[in-house]
Each structure stands twice: as C-alpha cells, then as structure tokens.
Automatic annotation (TrEMBL):
It holds the Pfam family 2OG-FeII_Oxy. GO terms for molecular function: jasmonic acid hydrolase; metal ion binding; oxidoreductase activity. Belongs to the iron/ascorbate-dependent oxidoreductase family. One of its GO terms (biological process) is regulation of defense response to fungus. PANTHER family: OXOGLUTARATE/IRON-DEPENDENT DIOXYGENASE (PTHR47991). SUPFAM superfamilies: Clavaminate synthase-like. The lineage of its organism: Eukaryota, Viridiplantae, Streptophyta, Embryophyta, Tracheophyta. This is Fe2OG dioxygenase domain-containing protein.
Length: 369
C-alpha cells in the first residue's frame, strides 16, 4: 500500500488531551451531522427489538483441546444462526483465562494514562497505522471520532516488530504476545466451525485465507469522557474490513452498538465473554451466507472506555472471491475478486463509511438488496 501518504493532513490532536483539559463544548471537528448522532433510530419495529441482545454461546462442550466435537450440533447450529442472522455473537468458556483478559485490558488502560511524551514515541502515520493514533482516514477536514487508539501487527512474522509495541507499563509486551497467541487459537477454532457450518471441509476457509500464512493485528481503542456524548461517536458506523474480529470489551461501561434492521442495539456484555463478529472478507468468501454487520461506538460523559479489537485476516496479497462450492446457478457469485491489501486501502483513505466498501464489490451480474 505504498500509495498511502506519509503524514496526516492536519496536526494531530489527542482526544484524551481534549477530554482532560476540561472543555465543556466539543470542537466542531467531532460534531456529527444530526442524522448520524447517537440517537435511537425511529422505526416501525416493536420495542422488544430495541431491547434485544446479540446471541450468547457457550463453547465448553464444543472444544476438545484445539479440536472440535462435530457432534455438538446444538452449539454448531447456534453459531450458524448467529452468523447468518446477526453477524455478531458472544462466546464464553472459550479457552482464554479471565486473568489474562483482565490483565490485557489493564495494561492498556495504564498505557493510555502514561504521560503524553511516553505515548508520543509511538505516534503513527497513515503509511501503516501502526502505533499511537487519533484518527482514521486521510481526508482533510473530515469529521473525526472521539477516540484515540493503538494499532499493532501480530502476524505474519515478516511485519511483526515488537519494538513498535509499548515498552511501558512493565510486562506490556509479554502480555500482548500471550494474549494475541491465545486469540489466534480461538480464531482458528472458529474458522473451522464456520467452514463446517457452510458445508465445506473443516480447513476450507483457513486455506482460502492463505493457510498458515494469514494476518493478525490488534487495535486498542480508548474512548475518553466526552462532555457532549449526544453529538459525537467514539467510532462511526462501519463493518470490519477483515475476516473476523474478536473484541474484548470494557466491562465497566457499555458503548458498542450493532445495527439490527433500522435500529441500533446496545450490546449487553456477559461476564467473561468475547464478542465475535463476521468481517467483510468472510462475507465475500461465504457469498453472503454470512454477513458483516454495521456497528458503532457511543461515548460517555462520566466514564472512559477501553476495548481490544483483534482482527484475523486473510493473506494480504491473495485475491478473495466467493468459494466456488457456494456458487450455484440460483445464487451466482455476488462479489468480484480483490486482495485484502486493495480492500483495506479504502478505509485507510476514507475512514469508516458504513458498508460502502463491500457493497462496491458486488458483481455487475448480481445485485442484491
């Protein structure tokens, strides 16, 4: 992605610094248009839809070490229905210890409360996004989100550079390594489940991702307190451009919302749960049997929020298109082929823009509504 520019179009302002300055009015750069503000969407759907929550799935009886019990049809069906109907679900008894989950959140919370000069060492650029950032997209004058973040690469090893990970607080790098290693295992299990549920061989989707030569990265989101949370968002509506996302949410304050028809559902997190969502690349591979779903993040006037988003992605230069076994005369291929490198360039240029990127891939032979 050498066409990306080296510098941001305007001087970077850390949202945390704005929050901690005590401003009572947020700058215009963060004020969303009225139609995009975090007010409930008016719809004809009954009230109980607004009170819904994404599915909660217990993986305990599904896992035999790192293998899958194919006889666990109830759990397999629950995951299948969640992928087809919601694009989101929560998992518990997933194999990652609560101690590690808590430690990962707390070291990152500690990082964002370090002195600004310690964080600025890791300031990022649009070239790779790796490091300490405060905006997505390089359009000059764009309306920004109320958040800071830290983005890092984990796989492939050819682009992994632990020296770009924070050295502070103590044991940060060891915690990142341990945490990401566990998430890779969990994603590998879920990829097998997705393949089985689509009627493919257990390793089919993983092979489509490049086999062992896949990608993994993490973005740690920091949403500072906001004096006018009704005017802005921590992260604008988008679907994730990669394959699958495993989110470790902050258990102190809600913020994630998932689009459900014409409504936004505020996710209620179960204790010890990860939130899993389908990304655009699996939507493409599955020929829209599984769908990535728009989501956004609200901010809070009284509490800050930290979350860890782990992205499991295909090999960056491998063209992806619908799996031929899922293409039939009745359901022809919905999407044209594109590499993940080409695909994610869009969001790095434009920032989060709903589902406009995956929609642009629709084959001229087949338009779906």
């Amino acid at each position: 992605m050498s066409c990306l520019q080296q510098e941001w179009p305007e001087p970077i302002v850390r949202v945390q610094s704005l929050s901690e300055s005590g401003v009572s009015v947020i700058p215009d750069r963060y004020v969303k248009p009225p139609s995009e503000r975090p007010n409930p969407i008016i719809s004809d759907q009954p009230l109980e839809v607004e009170e819904a929550n994404i599915p909660l799935i217990d993986l305990q009886d599904l896992l035999i070490g790192e293998d899958i019990d194919h006889g666990s049809t109830i759990i397999l069906n629950q995951i299948s229905e969640a992928c087809r109907d919601w694009g989101f679900f929560q998992v518990v008894n997933h194999g990652v210890t609560l101690e590690l989950m808590h430690r990962a959140l707390e070291v990152w919370r500690h990082f964002f409360h370090l002195p600004i000069e310690d964080k600025q060492v890791y300031a990022n650029s649009p070239k790779t996004y790796e490091g300490y950032g405060s905006r997505l997209g390089v359009e000059k004058g764009a309306i920004l989100d109320w958040s800071d973040y830290f983005f890092l690469h984990y796989l492939p090893n050819s682009i992994k550079d632990c020296n770009k990970w924070p050295a502070l607080p103590n044991h940060m790098r060891e915690t990142i390594e341990e945490y990401c290693g566990q998430l890779v295992k969990l994603c590998g299990i879920l990829m097998k489940v997705f393949s089985i549920n689509l009627g493919l061989g257990e390793d089919h989707l993983q092979k489509s991702f490049g086999g062992d030569d896949f990608g993994a990265c993490m973005r740690v989101n920091f949403y500072p307190k906001c004096p006018q949370p009704d005017l802005t968002l921590g992260l604008s509506p988008h679907s994730d451009p990669g394959g699958m996302t495993i989110l470790l949410p902050d258990d102190h304050v809600a913020g994630l919302q998932v689009r459900r028809g014409d409504s936004w559902i505020t996710v209620k997190v179960a204790p010890g749960a990860f939130i899993v969502n389908i990304g655009d690349q699996i939507q493409v591979l599955s020929n829209a049997n599984y769908r990535s779903v728009e989501h956004r993040v609200m901010v809070n006037s009284a509490k800050e929020r930290v979350s860890l988003a782990f992205f499991y992605n295909p090999k960056s230069d491998l063209p992806l298109e619908p799996v031929k076994e899922l293409v039939t005369p009745e359901c022809p291929a919905l999407y044209t082929a594109m590499t993940f490198n080409e695909y994610r360039l869009y969001i790095r240029m434009k920032g989060p823009r709903g589902k406009s990127q995956v929609e642009s891939l629709k084959s001229p032979r087949r338009i779906v509504t």
